[in-house]
Amino acid sequence: MNDTVTTPKTRTKTKVERPKLHKVILINDDYTPREFVTMVLKAEFRMTEDQAYKVMITAHKLGACVVAVFTKDVAETKATRATDAGRAKGYPLLFTTEPEE
Ligand code: TYC
User: Domain spanning 32-99 has what CATH number?
Assistant: First the structure.
């Protein structure tokens, strides 16, 4: 008969954390046409004309506007693609990203 009592000395607790979301931020400038900014927002961020116009005009008035939040990779890819769309036309249009608190 084996009377050995085996009490585990340690426990493993697996902790799963949600990936931090990152904001895509539209920065205002004096040169990119309003219609172009609105068009890029619709194409890259799947916004309606109304949503895109509101984000564009907010950045225009306040200097910047949060467009949407995504996981880090997606936020960076979309910001780069949207910025490149402006650059391809010679516009200084800029989208940046930053982690949410
Ligand atoms: N300020 C630009 C203009 O008057 C329009 C614009 C809006 C540009 C928002 C960039 O993020 C921007 N033509």
Answer: 3.30.1390.10
